[in-house]
Amino acid sequence: MKVVVIIPTYNEKGNVRPLINSLLNVFRSISHDMHILFVDDNSPDNTAEIIQKECQKHSNIHLITGEKKGLGAAYIRGMQYAADCLKADVLMEMDADFSHKPEDIPRLLSAIDKGADFVIGSRYVRGGKIPRDWAFWRKLNSKWGNFFARYIAGLYKIRDCTAGFRAIRVSVIKKIYLTNLKVKGYAFQIALLHRAVASHAVVREVPVEFIDRVEGETKLGLADILEFIINVFWIRFNNSRTFIRFAIVGTSGVVVNLTVFTVLVHSGINKFIASPVATEVSILSNFLLNNFWTFRERISKDIIPLKGLKFNVVSLIALGFSFFTFILLSFLFPDAAPQVHQAIGIIPATLINYFLNSYWTFKDHDHS
Ligand code: GDD
Ligand code: MN
To answer: 52 phi and psi, to 5 degrees?
Structure first.
């Protein structure tokens, strides 16, 4: 079995040589044909030159280079190269910064040997670890990322959806049309996992300890986080009829809101009264459509007025989230048009709205 460990690098000059030594050492204890493929995006710190020297010494080390388009774009190129040019049977994903321990590779591969198609080096199953000294916000960032992936994108059964340490059979990759994945950044991890699950790959999680990097710094940026949120939302949208209905109802609410507002103002009612009245009418029409259409299969123990009240509470919470996003973006990007801030605010508001209404207002009491 030919295994290619794909390692994307961007400004990792302090890490690559020690990592290569450590990997070659671990490879000695593995019976498979082990290779390393670096995908470097023309790192300005000349990471590629260091790798190039190692390629000349070892025939199982490979390098491809290209323009920097993000972590996902680098993996897509690397996976295609490993499958088509190197004729790999199994691919691995791994970071260059020693966050993933080379010593764990044999355990990931033995899960493949036992029949799994997609093995995740998981921090969130029993025995897995995240650094004990992780600051609160880092834990939160990782936790909510997984929470979104599990409950919004629907990958409920998997504990560590965002992990970047994996072993995947090429047969799975061949079923996934990599070039159709529109993700460029870190969102790639959940997009790929989602496609694998959808194509019925056997997924296993193997506990690993995630170590903080010592050399260099993280490349995760705001654009990656935004792309991640949009992608989770997109996966849900494509997957769930319920969510599509919910989105259609939400759009109809905008029409109702503006129509009622216009009618009221034209009939001489003060606009400061017309505005909240129009909003409340649209909340109620949304509620009724959701109750009798979107969530009609749900069996509820609440009477309709109580559900209506809950729906109103959720709308207020969502309003809070979109306003918070608006304020945050206004301070972070004061030069962008306020319409952009307002539009982006719709994303968290829709997610919160859907999530709370689905799991609270219209909770299904049939199965619980
Ligand atoms: N070629 C290329 N191009 N490599 C990149 C790019 C890029 O645009 N961005 C990052 N990398 C490389 C880094 O050099 C490193 O080897 C690896 O990808 C991971 O980047 P880090 O910046 O160290 O990521 P992280 O530690 O924040 O994120 C890790 O944990 C996440 C989950 O918490 C990674 O494992 C992610 O894949 C994972 O989702
Ligand atoms: Mn890292």
So the answer is: -55, -40
Q: Whose CA is nearest to atom 36 of ligand 1?
A: 164
Q: What phi-psi label fits residue 176: left (phi over 0), alpha (psi between -120 and 50 degrees) or beta?
A: beta
Q: What is the pLDDT of residues 277-308, one digit of tens each?
A: 999 999 999 999 999 999 988 888 899 999 99
Give domain 2-239's CATH number out of 1.20.58.220, 1.10.287.1080, 3.90.550.10, 3.30.300.30: 3.90.550.10
Tokens 């020693």, residue located: 98
Kindly calculate the radius of gyration of the chain based on its CA atoms and give it in whole angstroms. Answer: 24
Asked if residues 158 and 120 have their Cβ atoms less than 8 Å apart, the reply is: yes
Beta-carbon contacts of 88 under 8 Å, excluding residues fewer than 6 positions away, are 2, 3, 4, 35, 82, 170
pLDDT tens-digit map of 79-129: 999 999 999 999 999 999 999 999 999 999 999 999 999 999 999 999 999
Task: Give the integer Cα–Cα distance in Å for 279 and 284.
Answer: 9
Tell me the average pLDDT of the chain. 93
Contact 28/61 with Cβ under 8 angstroms? no
The single-letter DSSP state of residue 276 is H
Annotated domain spans of the chain = 2-239, 241-361
Closest ligand 1 atom to 7 CA = 16
Distance between Cα 218 and ligand 1 center (Å): 7
CA distances from residue 17 to 6, 54, 209 in whole angstroms, order as listed: 15, 8, 22
Q: pLDDT grade, residue 367 (50/70/90)?
A: very low
- Using the mean position of ligand 1's atoms as its centre, give its distance from the Cα of residue 261 in Å: 49
Ligand 1 pocket: which residues have CB below 6 Å?
Answer: 8-10, 12, 39-41, 68, 70-71, 74, 95-97, 99, 142, 162, 164, 186, 189, 213, 218-220
- Cβ atoms of 14 and 45 closer than 8 Å: no
The token duo for 348 is 């968290």
pTM of the entire structure? 0.73
| Beta strands at 33-40 and 90-93: parallel, antiparallel or unpaired | unpaired
Q: For tokens 């691995």, what's the residue?
A: 92
